[in-house]
Design goal:
There is one protein chain. Helices cover 36% and strands 27% of the residues. The protein is an alpha/beta fold. It has two domains: 232 residues, Rossmann fold; 47 residues, no CATH class. It has a six-stranded mixed sheet with strand order 5-4-3-6-7-10, sandwiched between helices. The chain has a two-stranded antiparallel ribbon with strand order 1-2. Helix 3 links the parallel strand 3 and strand 4. The protein is elongated, with a radius of gyration of 23 Å.
């Protein structure tokens, strides 16, 4: 099972200062912080429109009337709440425990930080966990108790198995009835074609997809020497190798896989971020959110 015992709630609270604003147009009748196709009373001016009987007189631009002797109203972009799903991969490869890092602990920390951030933004958020199939589901809610529900689900999430991305598309389609934000937290060790199909399906229905790809230090550096036994964390297959003989090929395959994922993400307008951490912290996530906030 995943663990939440290591969570530093003071550190998690600080990430809410960064914020996570959706880039898609959100359809909602509740006031929030995300862009909406509707017009409201946000501070950001959108456009002028000719006055029609029934329009609010407070919206009339009297300066424009003085210049043109015609009535115009100001329209402002409305902000809405967002429905989000945190989607966590709990397969065997995510449970890699090296000398410096336990990937599942990193991922749980990221999930908890994002859940707290969404709670403070008054967004509806939920949690979906998966391996070879959907193994856990906390439907999105905009409620203070939702954070506790998500933490409990993270603590009790079963781990192990082979990651399969094919079931995710239909599962999300059933659960999300309007445009939403999906945050996929996975090392994406599966087949790139299957991952690409998921990206395409999610984007086809108008959802925004952020993909956070955590990697352990040992996976990135392959710091092994001599004769070692490599174990496939998902299938249990074991193979004894000379580290020096396979290191170059392994690193090349890792690089090629990462580039293929980036191309796939770019093709479907998916935001993909790979990060490596030497300890369980929110620093990589905070850095990513700042970079995302600064991007046009």
């Amino acid at each position: 099972m995943a663990t939440t015992a290591h969570l530093n709630f003071a550190a998690l609270a600080r990430i809410s200062d960064v914020g996570l604003r959706a880039r898609i147009m959100v359809h909602s009748y509740f006031a929030g912080m995300h862009p909406s196709p509707r017009y409201g009373r946000n501070a950001e001016f959108a456009s002028y429109a000719a006055y029609r009987p029934g329009d609010d007189l407070r919206d009339i631009d009297w300066r424009a009337w003085a210049r043109s002797d015609e009535y115009f109203i100001k329209r402002y972009d409305a902000d809405c709440t967002l429905s989000s799903y945190l989607v966590l991969d709990t397969s065997g490869s995510m449970c890699h425990a090296g000398e410096h890092t336990i990937k599942m602990c990193m991922s749980v920390t990221v999930c908890a930080a994002l859940a707290l951030l969404m709670l403070r933004q008054h967004d509806a958020f939920g949690l979906l966990t998966f391996a070879d199939d959907i193994v856990g589901d906390v439907p999105p809610r905009a409620h203070e108790r939702q954070f506790t529900r998500v933490l409990a689900a993270l603590a009790n999430a079963p781990t192990g198995g082979v990651s399969r991305f094919a079931p995710l598309g239909p599962a999300l389609e059933q659960r999300l009835k309007r445009k939403s934000l999906i945050v996929l937290i996975s090392d994406l060790t599966g087949d790139c074609a299957e991952i690409g199909e998921l990206f395409e399906r999610v984007r086809f229905y108008g959802h925004e997809l952020l993909c956070l790809r955590p990697l352990a230090v040992e996976e990135v550096q392959f710091p092994y020497h001599g004769r070692v036994i490599l174990v496939d964390a998902e299938t249990g297959e074991r193979q004894m190798v000379q580290a020096r003989e396979v290191r170059a090929a392994y690193l090349e395959n890792l690089r090629a896989h990462g580039e293929q994922l980036l191309r796939c993400a770019a093709r479907h307008a998916v935001d993909l971020e790979t990060f490596t951490a030497h300890d369980v912290s929110i620093k990589p996530l905070a850095a990513y959110l700042v970079k995302r906030k600064m991007a046009p």
